[in-house]
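Shipment paperwork, digital attachment
Item: protein structure file
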Amino acid sequence: MDNSKQNIGVLEEKTYLFALRIIKAYKYLTNKNVYVLSKQLLRSGSSIGANCREATYAQSKQDFISKLSIALKETNETIYWLELLHDSDIISDDSFESIHKDALEILKLLISIIKTTKSNIQK
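Attachment content:
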């Protein structure tokens, strides 16, 4: 298995587990009556994995890059909502640090895969 296919498998697993964490965070936040921010977090946080899953059956390398680029944007938006929830003292430091670390890891992995794929297209 080449490295890019291996990275996609890792990415799919990480984004799926991340979406499960986001769903749990959503449940917690709605119990605290934080509806608007929790819904935004749920939408962007669960969208990451869905776009990565779509990318695995992309019709072309450009389509693949497009789907992962959408996932990258959704990851960045999710990080924004997490930071906002943390900085407004809605989620604790420990909760934030753990899920924020996971989001940054996904962000870096997406950037790496997108860059590698673009580089391979140019070769």
